[in-house]
Amino acid sequence: MRPEQSSEQHGVGTHLKDASQPALNEAEREELRALVSQAVEVIPPNWPLRTFAYRNPLIGFEHLPFHEAVSQAKHVLGGEGYLSTAEYRGCYAEGRISKKELLNALRSRVPELASQDRVRAGERSLHPEEILLVHLVHGIDPLDPKLWPWQLTEEDATHRIRPDVPQSIKDRLRSHAAGRDSEALYIHSLWAGALKVLDLSEDGSTGHHGHSPATAKAGGSAHAEPGPTQQRLRTAAEIIDDLTGSDLTREINEHMIKWCAAFADEGMADWSMPSRAHGFYRAWRELAPREAAGWTLGISGWDRKVEALPDRPEDALASSLHRLQVPDQQREEYLRRHLTRLPGWVGYIRWRAKNPDYPEQGRHPIDPLEYLAVRLLYEAELAEKVCQSELRINPTLPDLLERARSRDLEGIDSHAHDAHTETVCRDVWRLFHLAQFLEVRPEELQRLSSADVRSLLSWLDRFPSDALRPVWHEAYEKEYRNALMTKLISERQRTAAETRHERPRPLAQAAFCIDARSKPFRRHLEAQGEYDTIGFAGFFGTPIDYRKLNREEDLLLCPVLIKPKYVVKEEPRWAQDPEVQRYLLGDRWTQFVRHLFHQAKSNPASSYLTFDLFGLVFGLAMLGKTLFVKPYELVRTALRQWLTPPIPTKIPIEKFPEQEREAYIDGSERACIAEVLEQRIGGRSVVGTLSQEVLEEFRLAALREPEDGSHATRQTTASERLGLSVAQEHAVLEELRYQDGLNAHNHHLSVERFAASRFSPAEKAAVVENALRVMSLTKGFARLVLLCGHASTTENNPYASAYHCGACGGNPGGPNARVLAALANKPKVRLELRNQGIEIPEDTWFIAGEHDTTTDQVTLFDLEELPESHRPDVRQLQQDLDAARLLNVQERLGRLPGAPSGIVPQDAARYTSQVSRDWAQVRPEWGLSSNAAFIVGRRLLTRGLTLDGRVFLHNYDQSQDETGRALEAIMTAPLVVCQMINFQYYFSATDNWAFGSGTKVLHNVVSGVGVMLGRHSDLQTGFPFQALTTGARRFHEPLRLLAVIEADTERISRIISRHVVLQNFFNNQWLYLVSCHPTTGEFAEYQPGGTWKAVSPPIS
C-alpha cells in the first residue's frame, strides 16, 4: 500500500501526494544558503582540539547588551549565563557580596524604584528598595500549590518562623510573642492577618471582594508565563516527543553524531568513511541506503527514499521544509532550532566551512547546509511515521502545533487548582513571609489598605527571584573591581615619583606573554635583581606557519583571528653532524614502529597476537605511569635520548629563491606519486627505474580536474608503459587527488605557502619594528633582551592545547620567540630600525626562551649563536630564572588542590615536575582559570602588586606611541583574544553542561577533533569542571573582564569609535573599561554611549 493511501485510511490529509517540489534554480539555492548562513550565526565556531581556540560562546549575540544577550541565549542555546540565585545568596552570607554593592546594583538595574511610593505599615514606612532587598537576599517567592498540603501539615509552616530569618529578627519576633500565649500563636496570627487583608479565610471562603487585590490590576503579573501561542518555535520532532513521549529528537541526534564523527575523522578510525571527497551530503547519500536505519527507526523503504533524493543538498533541504510545511517567515528560526540541538558539532562544521584552507576541509568538505539537508530528512521521515501510526494527523508543522495547542489547553484545565489555593500560595504566602522579615506585626498587617497590598505584591511580581540574577551579578563583579581598582590607585600614587626619574640600565629585559600565569613569575624574577619585565602577546608579532623538525604537521602559531604571513621550518643546526644522522634515523624508526603497531592492533587478523606479544610491556608501562611515575619517567627519558639524542636546531629566516621554491614543490609531489605507484605495482622492476618524465606526466594529470567521462579514457601514456589498465590509472589519479591531496587546489596552496616562506629584507625590519613599538620597547635597551614564550607540559589531557599559548593558536610560543630574536640580531635589520628612529645598542643581544607554566622551567634557545662577551650575563640570567622558578612553584602550590603544603621550594619544584608527567592528574595546573582583568600600561602600575595570577598584563607607554597605532593594535588584537578567553571560562563556569565539557571522567576523544561525553554525545565546547572548581570551592569566578588602559580618554575613545567590535564590547558592557591618565594618574570609567566617569577608591 502506498503511503498516501495509508494516510487517507487513517483520516490523515493527502498532503503527501504533493510533498515533493521541483528542483530549485540557482537563485533559490543561493537564497537558501543565505538563510542557513543567517541561522547558524548564533553558533560559535568550534576549533579542533589540536588548535583549541578560546571563543565567546555567545559571540553571535555580541551586538546586544550583555544581560539581554544572556537572556536570549538561554532561549536559543539553552544555557545559563549567571550563577544560581542560591550561590549568589551564599556569597552574600559569606561577605563576598556586600549589602552596599547589592543596593548599588539594584538601583542601577531598576532606577525607577527611586520614584515609587512608600507603603505605611504601622509606624514604619516601607520603600520598594527595602522590599526588593529582602526578596533578593531571602527569596519571597510563591509556593507551588502542589507543596501546600505538605507545608501545612508536615512543616507546620503557618505556625513557625521561617528558618532563614536572621537570628536578630527571630529574637525580636519572639520578644513580640512573649506577651501572647506562644510563639506559634503569634506567627499564626501573622498568617491570619495576611489572609484577612486579602479578604480570605482559612476555610476557603472569601470576603465581599472575592479575589486577590494583587491580581485585580489590569494586565496581571509583569512576568506571567507565556501561553501556548507565545512559546518559541519548536521542531516537529520536539513537538511529537512532547505529544507522544517518544524520543525522536534524541534518535535524530544520535544518527547525526554517528555520521559527523565518521566524516570528520582525522586518523583515529581504523576504517575511514568512503566517498568523503565528494562532501558530507553525497558521502552520506551513498552509504545511508546500506545502514540499518530503515529497520531500527521503522522507516519503510528507507534505501529507496535515500536513493531518490536530489543530487544537490539545497534541493534536499528545500524538499524536507516543504514536506513539513514550515512557513517561509519561520524557516530561519526553524533551521536555527535544529542547528542548536547539537551546537558542538555544528560549531565545528561551521568552523570547517569558514576555513577552506584547512587541509581536511580541502579533502573532505562539509558545511551547515549539508548537515541540515541530512538532519531534516530524518525528521521528515520519522514525523511521517509517528503522525500516521499514533497521532493520526498530517506530519506538518501547522498540524502539530495545532494539536499541541489543544493538548496544552486541556492540560491547563485538568491541572488547575481552586482559586483559593492559588491565591494563598501566590499572595498570602509571600505577604506572610515578607511580614516576618520586615517585622510587621499582625495588627499592622491587617490595617494595610488594598492599594498598599497591591503595591507590595506588584513589586515582587515584577521581579521573580530568577529575574534578579543580573542584579546579583552586577554586585558580584563590582566587589572584585573595587578591590583591584583600590590596589591600582594606591600603587599609582605610591610610584608617581618614579615617572620623573630615569632608572639605571637593567641587567636584562624579559618580555613574557601577557598570559596571567606569567605575572607571578615576572614578580619573582624582578625580585632577583635589576630586571625589567615586559608583557606582550605571546606570538611576539610574528604570525608564522611552523613545521617542527622531521614532522609533517604545520602549526599555525598566531592568534586564530589572523592567518600566518610567514612559513618557517626547524632544521638541524649542523646537518653533517653524526648526531643529527643518528637522531633522524632514530626518529624515523620510532615513527615506523608506532605506525606498525597501530596497524597491527587495528587489523582483525593481527590484533589478538599483538596484545599477546606485548601485553606484559603495556602492563608494566601502565604500572609505572600510575604508581612509579618518577622511575618510569627516568627510564622513558633515557630511552628517548638514546633513540633520538637532543641536537641543536635552528629556524632559518632567509627567503627561498623562487626557482628553489618551485623545484621543492614539484619534487615533493613527484615523491608522493612514486610512493603511490610503488604501492600499486610493488615488486615490479620498473618501479625502481621510474623516470622523472613518467612522474611528471602523472603529476600534471593529477593536477588537472577530471572532466565528465574522462575516467573512460587514458590520461597518461606512462600508465600504459607501466602496464596499468585505464581503470587502474583512474584509481591511481583518484587516490592522488582525494587521499593524498595532490590536486590543483592544494598545489595552489603550496605555491602560496612557499611564496610566504621566511622573510624578505623589508619584512624582517618591519616585523621587528612593529613588535618593539607595540611592546613600547624603543629605547633604554639592556645588554640582554629575553623573549620568552610559554607552553605547558601535561599527560593524557585532551585539552592540552588550551594550556599552551592562546596567542599562538593553542601551541607553544617558543618558535615565535626564536624567530623574532633571530630577526632582531641581524645587523641589517638594526640599521633599518635606526632609520626608523629605534636605536638598538651594539652590545644588546636578543635571546629566545620558553616558560613551562606547569613546572615553571625556562628553556633558552639558540645559545650557540650567543657572543662570548654575553655568556656571563646569560649564566647570571639562568641562575635568576631558576631562583624565580623555585619561588613561583612554591607560591602556586598553595592554590593547587591536593598539593602538599608548607614544603621547601626544591620539593615544590620536584612535585610540579612529577605532576606534569602524571597521566592520572586531572589538574596539573589551573591554566587561565580565575582570569578577571587586562591591564595595559607601564610596569610601574603593577610592579609592587600581588595580583594572584588573575590579570593579563600588556606593556604600553603612551609617550612612545605618538600616532596611537600601537594602542590600537593592542585593543583590536590582544584585548579581543583576552575577551574570548575570559568568556570561554565565564560561560564554562555558569553552565558547565551547556557551555563547558562536564567532568573529565566521561571524556572520550572522537575523530581526533573533539571530546564527547561517553560513547555518544554532542561535541563538547568548553572547559571541564576540574579546570574551574575543586568541587567544594569555585576557583574560577565568572566575571566580565575589566580592562584598565594607561592612556588618555580621548585617545581611547577615538580608537573605540573606529571599531565596531570595541563599540559592542564597551557600549553593550561585555567588558568594563577604565582609563588611567599617564601624566596625572587620574582614573576614569567608560560609560555606555561614550562618556567617562571619574573614579576614586573604592570604585563606585
Note the main attributes of this structure.
single chain, 1100 residues, 5 domains, 6-stranded mixed sheet, 44 helices
What does this structure look like?
The protein is α/β, with parallel strands linked by helices and 1100 residues long. It folds into five domains: 3-42 and 234-413, no CATH class; 111-210 and 419-462, no CATH class; 509-567 and 758-1095, no CATH class; 574-647, no CATH class; 656-756. 49% of the residues lie in helices and 8% in strands. The chain has 44 helices and 20 strands. The protein has a six-stranded mixed β-sheet with strand order 14-13-17-18-19-20, with helices on one face. Strands 4-3-10-11-12 form a five-stranded mixed β-sheet, sandwiched between helices. The protein has a three-stranded mixed β-sheet with strand order 6-5-7, with no helix packed on it. Helix 10 runs parallel beside helix 19 (368-391) and helix 29 (658-680) packs antiparallel against helix 33 (744-755). The chain starts with a helix and ends in a 5-residue tail after the last strand.
Strand content: 5-15%
Number of domains: 5
- Taking pLDDT < 50 over at least 5 consecutive residues as the criterion, the unreliable ranges are 1-19, 207-230, 683-687
Strand order of the largest sheet: 14-13-17-18-19-20
Q: What can be said about the biggest beta sheet?
A: 6 strands, mixed
- The number of helical elements comes to 44
Radius of gyration: 34 Å
Q: Which percent range fits the helix content?
A: 40-55%
List the helices and strands and how they pair.
Elements: H1 3-9, H2 26-39, H3 66-77, H4 85-94, H5 99-109, E1 119-121, E2 124-126, H6 128-138, H7 148-153, H8 167-177, H9 183-197, H10 236-244, H11 248-264, H12 280-287, H13 293-296, H14 302-307, H15 313-324, H16 331-339, H17 343-354, H18 359-363, H19 368-391, H20 397-415, H21 419-438, H22 442-446, H23 450-462, H24 469-494, E3 508-513, H25 518-526, E4 531-536, E5 544-547, E6 554-557, E7 566-569, E8 571-572, H26 578-602, H27 607-627, H28 629-643, E9 649-650, H29 658-680, H30 692-703, H31 718-721, H32 726-739, H33 744-755, H34 761-774, E10 784-791, H35 800-803, H36 814-824, H37 827-835, E11 845-852, E12 858-861, H38 871-893, H39 905-916, E13 933-937, E14 951-955, H40 965-972, H41 974-990, H42 992-995, E15 1003-1006, E16 1010-1013, E17 1042-1045, H43 1049-1057, H44 1060-1067, E18 1072-1076, E19 1083-1087, E20 1091-1095
Parallel strand pairs: 3-4, 3-10, 5-7, 10-11, 13-14, 13-17, 17-18
Antiparallel strand pairs: 1-2, 5-6, 8-9, 11-12, 15-16, 18-19, 19-20
